[in-house]
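Shipment paperwork, digital attachment
Item: protein structure file
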Amino acid sequence: MRPVALLCLLALAAGCASDPAPKPAATPTSLAQLKPAKLNLVRVAFCDLVPTKAVTAAVGPSSTPQEWGNGERPPGAAAGDVGHEVGCAWTVGPRLARAWVFARPVSAAFGRQVVAQAQHRKACTATAADDFGSPGLRQVCLGSGTTRARRAGLFGDTWLTCEVAGPEKPSAVSRRADAWCVAVATTLNKTG
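Attachment content:
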């Protein structure tokens, strides 16, 4: 190798080694900090992308999620039911955390229809809430010793639904759901 070429390679290597590593983009830590209109969510398999810390906060230490894709049966669905989404579920004891995105782009009219339908489910309260997508909803359902809190919303043309369930009081489950949903939305955001 010529001395000039060797010097150039050494200079480039030294320059690369001294460049500071790029800082990761700041992610919201609460629902109040989330800016849904600025997020552009991807519709991809994402179970491996969700931070372990977020899963642990939602359900406790967990290992492997149950995954499903477009055309597959989601966990807990009746035989023959086919999902039209990409999703993941983590279960630890009585606690559950799930999230899914519709596999196809959806419109705001479709989102408003989903919100309206959610407001008529038995044993559930649902309200329109544009702090998690637009349109968006917040839903809390009470069952036999279990509370399920769900957030869903339209981010651009991607519909994201996420939920947690557990034996705690509705306010505690709702707080876990809000943090979980922020983590999932941030994970799926490609605007970084």
